[in-house]
Amino acid sequence: MKERIVILGAGESGTGAALLAKAKGYDVFVSDQGQIKEKYKAELKQHGIAFEEGLHTEDQILNASLIIKSPGIPEKAEIIKKVKYAHISIIDEIEFAYRYIGDSKIAAITGTNGKTTTTLLTYHLMKSAGMSVALAGNVGFSMARQVAQQKFDWYVLEMSSFQLDGTETFKPDIGILLNITPDHLDRYEYNMQNYVNSKFQLIENMEPQQHFIYYADDAVIATDLKTRAVVPQEVAVSLNPASGVPVRFDGEKMTFDIAGKRFSIAQSETTLKGPHNLINTMASVSAAVLAGVEVEAIKEGLKTFKNAPHRLEPVGTIKGIEFVNDSKATNVDSVVYALGSYDKPLVWIAGGIDKGNDYNLIKEDVKKKVKVLICLGKDNEKLKKAFGGVVPEIQETQSVPELVRMALKAGREGDVVLLSPACASFDLFRNYEDRGDQFRKAVAELKKEIEGK
Q1: Where are the alpha helices (DSSP H) in 231-349?
Q2: Per-residue pLDDT for the chain (453 aa), expressed as one digit of tens each?
Q3: What are the strands, taking DSSP E only, across 119-272?
Q4: Do the annotations mark residue 166 as ligand-binding?
Q5: Distance between CA atoms of 374 and 390, rounded to whole angstroms?
Q6: Residue 414 in marked binding region
Q7: Is 111 annotated as a binding residue?
Q8: To 10 degrees, the CA torsion angle through 184, 189, 190, 192?
Q9: Which residues form the Mur ligase C-terminal domain (predicted)?
Q10: Measured between alpha carbons, how far is residue 182 from residues 98, 108, 118, 187, 333 in Å?
Q11: Hey, which residues does 262 pair with through a beta bridge?
């Protein structure tokens, strides 16, 4: 009799896991408490995989020998409690896929901020150098789907703490930890150390020949490393010229002394701006070197990289004023990075659903750089209270086309209009992508109207 695997959640991750489980000869059942997207239903049907939606039928789930759950399902969910009570093993799709990669290698990236950029850049540097590499995890297609369909030499994974929580034997050949700041604490019993431990699950199983790249200036990482036995080879990255670590910014260039290679790269030779992207770039370049990419190929790759949308994305220039979409900045830490990326006067657009922000973290930068704050949200009182008297002028709107006109009127040639909201988007938008897309579209339409192009 075939071993039975039940998959909870039928998004990209769950569907990918189902395809891999079916390909490996398991009896597979998929259960989603919500509605399954049509494209995933069609795939499940095409591969003869049984599924249900709108409920979890316990009789069909609790007879499994292994459960693969979506990272979005919390431990406190009723069905998970029952699975645990039945002593059925629960893992994540990435852990499942990892068990079938053979001699392929993994570079895994985590951190509270900067994961996506670093993952995409690492993938780009390897791919543009001609390596056999797949992009997976929180970006691209699920790892399980790709393992099921094709063999790659390398998998570059963006991993959230939720995905790391679902690993048991998983160990990347290269692990990158960018930073740790409070986030998702509702999933970690409001205990910061639980969240820190989740991030460090990245290196839990790593071996001496493998490499752990981390940002040495991050206070949380630095403190935790003092009490933690680290088995893989450490590659510290720092913005401090005096740090003496192998990969650092010397005040002018990023310098690398890694895997027997010594070289330097100026940020102007890359497509990314801001100090946070120095960290991301140093981590990605280090990973690429360790994966075997030649330095010249890395330098070429850095010139052609395009970041994911909604991350300090230039979306147009009108009357000499640059409009930048940083809609992905849904917390204050992300806005710190955004403000640090520009020396020009800013018209700053912020607002939405506040996630318990401490605006004191950015008050000094805002005071120095922001000439006008435009609040885009249903309730802007906290923002107005925080920055009244700090910013010379505060305006507000709930309309994106009006917002863009207000910003153009407030700016002067050489200024930057920066959408970096510090808040979630759900009061006025479907998600941060929708917010950024609407902003990009409104800028393009206003530009066309003014310039007639």
Answers
A1: 275-290, 295-304, 332-340
A2: 789 999 999 999 999 999 999 999 999 999 999 999 999 999 999 999 999 999 999 999 999 999 999 988 888 899 999 999 999 999 999 999 999 999 999 999 999 888 999 999 999 999 999 999 999 998 889 999 999 999 999 999 999 888 998 899 999 999 999 998 766 666 666 777 888 888 999 999 999 999 999 999 999 999 999 999 999 999 999 999 999 999 999 999 999 999 999 999 999 999 998 888 999 999 999 999 999 999 999 999 999 998 888 989 999 999 999 999 999 999 898 898 899 889 899 999 999 998 788 899 999 999 999 999 999 999 999 999 999 999 999 999 999 999 999 999 999 999 999 999 999 999 999 999 999 999 999 999 999 999 875
A3: 133-137, 154-158, 174-177, 211-215, 233-238, 247-249, 254-258, 261-265
A4: no
A5: 13
A6: no
A7: yes
A8: -80
A9: 310-423
A10: 28, 21, 20, 11, 10
A11: 257
- Given a contact cutoff of 8 angstroms between Cβ atoms, the answer to whether 382 and 314 are in contact is no
113 in a known ligand binding site? yes
Please give the backbone phi and psi of residue 273, each rounded to the nearest 5 degrees, phi first.
-110, 160
Helix (H, G, I), strand (E, B) or coil at 339: helix
271 known member of a binding site: no
Answer yes or no: is 116 a known binding residue.
Answer: yes
Token output for 196? 């820190």
| Domains along the chain with CATH numbers | 4-87 (3.40.50.720), 96-304 (3.40.1190.10), 313-451 (3.90.190.20)
C-alpha torsion sign, points 405, 411, 414, 418 = negative
Q: 407: closest CA among 345, 336, 354, 359?
A: 345
| Residue type present at position 28 | V
Residues 6 or more apart from 250 whose CB is under 8 A from it?
Answer: 241, 264
84 is in an annotated binding site: no
The tokens describing 379, both together, are: 């309730």
